[in-house]
Amino acid sequence: MDLKPFKLDIDELINEFAKGGSPSFAEMKRVWVSKKFSYIFEASPSKDQACFMQSLYAYCSGYMVSTYSLLSRLGGLYSLYCLYETQPFKPPFKIYISLGDLKNLRNIIAEAKAKDVKVVPALVKRMLDRNMFLFGSVDVNEGSVAERLDELTEIQNASIRIASKKAWSLRWICSSKSQQNMQGPRNLLLEVTSMSFLSF
User: Which ranges does the record mark as transmembrane (predicted)?
Assistant: First the structure.
C-alpha cells in the first residue's frame, strides 16, 4: 500500500497546527476536527492493519526529533495520541516507541514544562497510565516498519509463551482441587488467563 498520501495528510495537519502558534492540545483538536482527520481510517487496508498503524505512528514520531520547532514536535505527539484514540481497531494497536523515541519524548516534556505548557506532561502521563505504548529497541531511523513488526511479533510470541505456561500451571492447580468442587472458579480463572492473549 502506498502510504505517501497519508504522510502528506499528516504533514498538512501538523503544519496547520504549528502555524496556529498555540501549543495547546485544544488547538490540535480544533485542527483535527476541522480537517475531519479521523476519516484517515476509511482508507485503511483490510489486511496488514498493524503495518498501516505502525507506519502512521512512526511517521508522527519522526516529528518529535529536536531539529523541529517545539510546535511541530508537539504536533507529532498530539497526532500520536489522536490516532490512537480515534482508531477503529479493537483491541487498539499500541504505539511502538523505541529508546530513541523515548529520549525525544522526554526532551519534549522538559521543554514544554520550561515553557509552562502544562498539558504535555499530563497527556504523556495519561498515555502511560492507559498503556498506549509498546516499548522496543529498534529506533525510527535505524529500522524499517518491517523490522518493527518483527520485533512486535517476537514480543507478542514471548507473551503468549508466558501466558501459556501460566495457563498450564493454573490448569494443574485447578485439576488437583477438582475433588473440592472447584469447577466454577477454575473456569473463571482460565477465562481471565485467556483474556491476556486478546489484550496484547
Answer: none
